[in-house]
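Practice record 12: protein with uridine-5'-diphosphate-xylopyranose.
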Amino acid sequence: MRVAIVGSGYVGLTTGVCLAAVGHQVICVDVNPDRVAAINAGKAPFHEPGLPQMLLTALSSGLLSATTGYFGAIAESDVIFITVPTPQKGQGIDLSYLAEAARHIGAALQTAANYKVVVVKSTVVPGTTDTLVRTILEDVSWRRAGEWGLCMVPEFLQEGSAVDDSMNPDRIVIGRWDERSGQVLAEMYRPFECPKIFTTLRNAEMLKCASNSLLATLISFSNQIAALCEATPDTDIEVVMDALHLDRRLSPVVDGQRIRPGILSFLRAGCGFGGSCLPKDVNALRSYARVRDVPSRLLDAVMSINAERSAHLVSLCEMALGSLEGATVAVLGLAFKAGTDDMRESPAIGVISYLAGKGALVRAYDPMVCRPTGLEDKDNVVLCRMPDEALTGADAAVVVTAWPEFAQWDWDGLCAKMRRQVIVDGRNSLRSVSWPACVEYLSIGTPATGKNEE
Ligand code: UDX
Ligand code: UDX
């Protein structure tokens, strides 16, 4: 089939190369000419394992190209995906890019010679596709839904494994306006062997918001228990959560084997969740709840617990040093999680802000982030290219991203270069390191980092 992708970012480009990999003809549309040029030159515009190879294969087979021209791309396509940003705006969601994309698509539908299906893949709150998107498409194309198809297919891609998530999806959820729309997508997704759920547009939209909200809730739950462990002598969050995971409802026993499912990777206490999705999607659902006059107390608590994590990490550092005024602190990790160069909503931004507020100088290191974002207004930060540069002369180090390489460093040698040796492990990712005696190591969810009263 011929597929247009409107918005060629982490989700759009990854979706495009994977559809090309199963034989579809893909044209990626983007307003950013540099991104279009990079794609056509076979240069993946962001880090995603497997994407560079998939992109080159798609280009060399002639099954993928990129353009800034909406009209021609849409006119030549059978299916048009919308994967433009739907960022947070105040307490709600900014749908301006989505509306703009719908207007361009509607213009091409006006003179379409063949039946086309428009697919919203950007994360939106329930009711967006069949109201905002459908209305714009009908108004601009002068044709009613039915003359063209309309679907909502949520994305479930994790950054760092987006290609694998796309090629081997757990499920494909197809919200469709009508049967014909759904049948076209069923044909397009035929090469993917996984459960396919055909449902209403609003179920598909709600599922996406619910999925990310569950993941965020699990993370804030683990951070709630970690806070209680820090106030309780002889407890350790890692021991508690490992044992909790063995509940057969979380780790079922199948054919005598206990299956430790991936859900366990969403119960790790730390310095909170970031990224372009979880915070935005939970807040979008909260604002939707307000519109529907439904209390969202649980989601409100999930976000308020998360908002406190960066400040908590800095308070651990301040408790150990006595004062942060004039202190030099190495921040280890800028990306919102390991495996990506993406700093969107990263906890590191909050940590650095709080450190600046306390008068500390920050030396930041991340193995993958070359162009930090979100720190433009911070003048207390130096970006270091090597661990030595970040740690030499530092009074403390704060781990914000669980990069596996951190645990492999020569900490004896690095600690010897620090002025004082306080290590605050915001991801509990250095628990395996045998620290020199001079090091004060603090991690999340143990009483050593919290109140010690009986
Ligand atoms: C985006 C949304 O942020 C997310 O909510 C949704 O689930 C999927 O799409 P992502 O792919 O991470 O996620 O966005 P990003 O990496 O920022 O890429 C968006 C692309 O769209 C950029 O290349 C941008 O240039 C392009 N764009 C943006 C357009 O082509 N048209 C626009 O009007 C706006
Ligand atoms: C998320 C969802 O996982 C994915 O299904 C959806 O399609 C898009 O949003 P992503 O944003 O790429 O994917 O990152 P994810 O792996 O979910 O991590 C999100 C944040 O939670 C990161 O900051 C990570 O460090 C943090 N996290 C994750 C925890 O703090 N504890 C955990 O146990 C797991």
